Amino acid sequence: MSAGASVTINISRDEATPYIERLIEVMESVDGRKVIARGLERDVRDHLIRFNAQNPNRNAAAGWRRTNVVADAANATHGEATAEGVRISINHPMIGLRYFGGTVTPVKAKLLAIPIDPAHPAADPQAAEAYGQSPRAFHHLRLVMFGKSGVGALIARNRTDIAIGADRRKGREGRKRAKQGNTIHGGIYYWLVQRATVRANPAILPTDAAIQQSAATHAADYIETATTSKGE
Amino acid sequence: MITPKPLPFQQALDALTVKSPLPTSASSRALEQLPAQLARRATFSARTNSAWYVSRIADVTESLVAGLKRAEGGMSKPQAMQELRDALKQLGYHPGTAGIEPRSIQDFSSDRRLNLIVDTNVDLAQGYGHHTAGQDPAVLDAFPCQELVREINSRVKRPWTSIWERAGGRIYAGRMIALKNDPVWTRISRFNLPYPPFDFNSGMGVRDISRREARDLGVAGIEQPQTPAPMSLNADLAASPPQRHRDLIAALRDQLGDLVTIDPDGTIHLKEAAA
């Protein structure tokens, strides 16, 4: 599963408390619903941007790049007034998976490629560059399958650095000279698996209580703004 | 209630629908001369003269903005970048044969270049979408201002406070806030547009400020009624893609005159105007 997410608020009079009554009053008008949708959109975006800043990927210290995927989801967030209430949609394929959790299976390929933890003893010294990249971006990987387990790995080929510097040998001054450098023994870049399970992380979105509180605050603001701008 | 069923971000998708591919030999500096109302009707990338490759950029951008599941034809950003890398390979592109330093920003197939293309195009579409939705009269009345905020911690940070002040922006309690339709937003934009992104990889965005908060901060002009300044795409949306492309080329010729020449295959060449 991989999908966006949607926060919907529809209110019925059955649940009416004083603050819900105020919300109902505002939500009865299209303009009121638009304003609450926009206010909630801002609050959900704020939450995602804060979450992105406070939760770098688990291997950031080991050199995994920051993809800022949760901040990307913030920009894919938009609020709309619907016929019955408001809906905040986050049109990003990652957000539903992170929020609800689930099992990911390959759609086009036969196996999923999961970047190896750079601290793993079998990781290639440059494996950190695999994170946030398709394996097809690399041309020096070979496939190894571990028996009939259905699990495999993409392993870097051994490679040797070539250093090119000035030739200082007598009679060859001013020319370039190639020297063999260190040989890097290739390690794993990606694990290849048939499925991966992502744990649900509800903290990626605001709680229902926080969303209702935000909606009530924007409703109160809307009432005050409408009153003062009409000079009542 | 939180469910896995988002609604399409229609305004952002509309911003992409009206675009025509614009293959060009021009540098990014020369492309800054494109009037904003033309630039937002075209998909282009500096020194990219393959119409087919530019249309692949448009395709992956649309897929990312739609936020579809993989099974529905959607893709992640790494997959989008790989699609573009594959397209370049099909064109026979290699930085070595093109005389370009591999992995530099000039290398079309480098991470830096592909990231920049994908991020800028997606962010511009979403920026347009948020801006347009914010021009609804009821929304503009409730949230008449916005704040320039850092959303992503960029490696190289530009001096946004000085850029803001040089553009005529004012600071309120240490925050860069202005009315949504203040010209300062266009002035701080490299793309001459009133919405983010305001520059390549800037990491900056905007955050709505309510009327109550703006009033408390004493933002200039807050007591005046705010008039929406919609950037309507309705006329473009009504036209067919070939008609949109013809209109764009005609407008380019009309507005840039001698600065623009167009090859029979549609490649645009732009002369840099003398400073």
Overall description:
The complex is a heterodimer of chains A (232) and B (275). Chain A is of the alpha+beta class. Chain A has two domains: 16-101 and 201-230, no CATH class; 103-197, no CATH class. In chain A, 31% of the residues lie in helices and 26% in strands. Chain A has five helices and eleven strands, in the order βαααββαββββββββα. Chain A has helices spanning 18-27, 30-54, 69-75, 93-100, 208-229, and strands at residues 5-10, 77-81, 85-90, 102-104, 112-115, 141-145, 152-156, 159-166, 176-184, 188-193, 196-198. In chain A, the strands form four sheets. In chain A, strands 5-10-7-6 form a four-stranded antiparallel β-sheet, with no helix packed on it. A three-stranded antiparallel β-sheet of chain A has the order 1-3-2. In chain A, helix 2 (30-54) runs antiparallel to helix 3 and helix 2 (30-54) packs across helix 5 (208-229). Chain A starts with a strand and ends with a helix. The model of chain A has no long low-confidence stretch (mean pLDDT 85). By secondary structure, chain B is of the alpha+beta class. Chain B has two domains: 9-132 and 240-270, no CATH class; 145-217, no CATH class. Chain B contains twelve helices and nine strands. Chain B has helices spanning 10-17, 28-31, 36-39, 51-66, 77-90, 111-133, 137-142, 160-166, 184-187, 211-217, 234-238, 241-256; strands at residues 2-3, 20-21, 42-43, 145-150, 171-172, 175-179, 204-209, 260-262, 268-270. In chain B, the strands form three sheets. Chain B has a four-stranded antiparallel β-sheet. Chain B has a two-stranded parallel ribbon with strand order 2-3. A two-stranded antiparallel sheet of chain B has the order 8-9. In chain B, a hairpin with a 5-residue loop joins strand 8 (260-262) and strand 9. In chain B, helix 1 (10-17) packs antiparallel against helix 4 (51-66). Chain B is globular and about 60 Å long. The model of chain B has no long low-confidence stretch (mean pLDDT 90). Chains A and B meet through strand 1, helix 2, helix 3, strand 2 and strand 3 of A and strand 1, helix 5, helix 6, helix 7 and strand 7 of B.
